[in-house]
Design brief:
homodimer, mainly alpha, DNA-binding, transcription (chains A, B), HTH-type_TetR-like_transc_reg (chains A, B), transcription cis-regulatory region binding (chains A, B), DNA-binding (chains A, B), Homeodomain-like_sf (chains A, B)
DNA sequence: CATAACATACCAATTAGACGGTTTCGTCAA
DNA sequence: TTGACGAAACCGTCTAATTGGTATGTTATG
């Protein structure tokens, strides 16, 4: 009856839209709020349309996770290309990538929160674990020092702190923190 | 009809039992699996009984969160008592507490995973944030160096890595890591 | 016209919680 | 010591709403 599905078909845009809405719901209201009805409703897409793009709820969550990992990979690679020093390069790339993803308003907002929520789903933990393992094996030659490990762990800590939206660290303190972390990767 | 509710009344035990079951469900199957039916069923307690102890699902989750924070506080305090050096004492206490809670099989298992899952609930993030803020203000005199902040962030990172159940760090590597972290708190 | 991109209408199962009942416990008077 | 008696600690059922998913359309696009 509605003219909703008379609109122009734009599968890629709709798919992207659905993922973004799912991400927003997850970060703002938690996993229990990410239902098919809620996602389709908030997207202006029917449930049938949603299930056309993602055959099941799990598929939706996995796709969301994939898109986040993709983003992260791209950001790391970009940061690493701008880094001339091999030693600790991956660790610095990881640090910069996490920092840059933090304040990019484009696309999926609240990256940290979404990732956190997704990691709270046991089914997706394994994939994250695999991702970490792959990287740590790939860069074992340049990023296996104790200090590098500490920097990467601290990066995860920053990521974790960000998701609380806590603004208890001013810009200069943060800058000193990052400077020190980079220094540690070069030891 | 069953004789189940003829058993001896042990409110504290039942309450504790319910929290443990909720924690296990959360860590093993994610938040979406923590339903009133599931918790009451796996506890051998009726739904009525569950709702008697925790008037709503939110109350149950909050109580679970409280019990975890309690544990953490106790572990930190214990670690700090055994530490003679004031400088960086809280940071070391935080580190040791997180490490010790990791491998205590007693009571609520999978502490990290449960905390993670709970933090994925936006309603509970604020409380964690408040907790962090309180501590960082209380120990501003002894634990406000950049390196101390890094150690605490890295501790969060370890906590995060633990919840993936990744065993990709052997005992000696871990020991060196902790040694280095402690060293950083003393600079 | 064939197929992909949607929409609408259902469905069985599950959900949080309300409700009223039953059993035990603490307490205090007789 | 007993024995009411109110309150706390349970139990089991009911329900309205929501859940993930199916089945079957309708429209646009190549």
């Amino acid at each position: 009856m509605s003219t909703a599905h008379h609109r122009k078909k734009q599968p890629l845009f709709v798919r992207r839209q659905l993922l973004e809405v799912a991400a927003r719901l997850a970060s703002e209201k938690g996993m229990t709020a990410v239902t098919l009805d809620a996602v389709s409703g908030a997207s202006g897409v029917s449930k049938g349309g949603l299930l056309h793009h993602f055959p099941s709820k799990n598929m939706l969550l996995e796709a969301l996770f994939d898109s986040l990992i993709e983003r992260l990979d791209a950001a790391i690679e970009e940061a690493m290309r701008a880094d001339p020093l091999p030693h600790g390069r991956f660790t610095r790339g990881y640090l910069h990538a996490c920092l840059s993803l933090r304040d990019q308003p484009q696309g999926t907002k609240d990256w940290a929160q979404v990732t956190m929520v997704l990691l709270s789903e046991p089914q997706l933990r394994q994939r994250w674990h695999d991702w970490v393992r792959e990287r740590s094996e790939e860069y074992v030659g340049t990023d296996s020092s104790v200090d590098a490990a500490i920097v990467r762990l601290a990066t995860d800590g920053i990521w974790l702190a960000d998701l609380l939206g806590s603004q208890d660290m001013d810009e200069s303190a943060r800058h000193r923190l990052v400077e020190r972390l980079i220094e540690l990767t070069q030891l």
